[in-house]
Structures are given as structure tokens and as C-alpha cells.
Amino acid sequence: MNNQTNTLDPGPFFHGTKANLKIGELLEPLYLSNYQDKKSNYIYFTATLNAAKWGAELARTNSRERIYIVEPLGDFENDPNLTDKRFPGNPTRSYRSKSPLKIVAELGSWERHSDEEINHMITSLKKLNEEGKNVIYD
């Protein structure tokens, strides 16, 4: 794991979700995952707006989609679910941490993926789940 003084990526960092949070609040691990019916040992974030949009769009609630700009408050590492399994070299610039993320801002507006793209992603994820391949190593 790397800390803020020796980061893997300079940021800025984003977290896409449907949770309604305020500036200064902390996103912490050990809460229900956006993607699975279990508590996550990590909090996940990204340095790309595209990956953050997926996080907001695919979160499992019916609340409004939000993207927060976040500051990691501790050590973090490349997300092995993506960098080791799907996208070697971390082109999605996705990370995870056992330390909180501080919300420093919320993006006021951003362009969603098309409904067609979102539906395709949902279908692909359902297929992976049915095949037992949609595993998050947490």
C-alpha cells in the first residue's frame, strides 16, 4: 500500500455513489457495498471520471446518482479486482483503502453514460454473476 506522500496517482480522486453526503463527511469501509449484498472491507475510489460515473450509475439504490471528489486519509492500493483480473496496469486508475475518504466536493453536473451503455453493463454484470465470475476480492 502507498500513502499520500508516495501516491500511486496524483488525483484528483472520485467516488461515485447514490449516498447523499455532505462536504467534510467521511466515506468509510465496512458499509454495505454498492454492488454486492455484503459489507465491504475497503472503500473504493478512482482517478477517472468515467469509472466514478459507473460507480454512481450501477449503485443498487434508487436514490440520485452523485460523484464526490474525495481525499484519501490513509494508505491505499491499486484495486486488485480490476488491475489484476480485468485491466492489467490499472488504466481505470481504480484504488481501494481501509482508511476513510474525506468528501471535499460534489460534482454539480456530469454526463451520464447512455441508457444503452448502462443496460449493456448491467446485462454483462448479471451474466458474470450467473457464471460465478462477478467476484469482488475484498
Describe this structure in words.
It is a single chain. With 138 residues, the protein is α+β, with helices and mostly antiparallel strands. The two termini are 15 Å apart. The chain has three helices and seven strands. The strands form two sheets. It has a four-stranded antiparallel β-sheet. A three-stranded antiparallel β-sheet has the order 3-6-5.
Average pLDDT, rounded to a whole number, is 81
Measured distance between first and last alpha carbons: 15 Å
Structural class: alpha+beta
Order of strands across the widest beta sheet? 1-4-7-2
CATH fold field value: ADP-ribosylation fold
The major sheet is characterized as: 4 strands, antiparallel
Pfam family, one: Arr-ms
Organism: Rummeliibacillus stabekisii
Domain Rifampin ADP-ribosyltransferase: 13-110
InterPro entries: Arr_sf, Rifampin_Arr
How would you describe this structure in keywords?
138 residues, alpha+beta, ADP-ribosylation fold, 3 helices, 7 strands
Topology:
Blueprint: E1 13-17, E2 26-27, E3 43-46, H1 49-58, E4 66-72, E5 77-78, H2 80-83, E6 94-97, E7 101-106, H3 115-130
Antiparallel strand pairs: 1-4, 2-7, 3-6, 4-7, 5-6
Short description:
Pfam families: Arr-ms. The chain is α+β, with helices and mostly antiparallel strands and about 140 residues long.
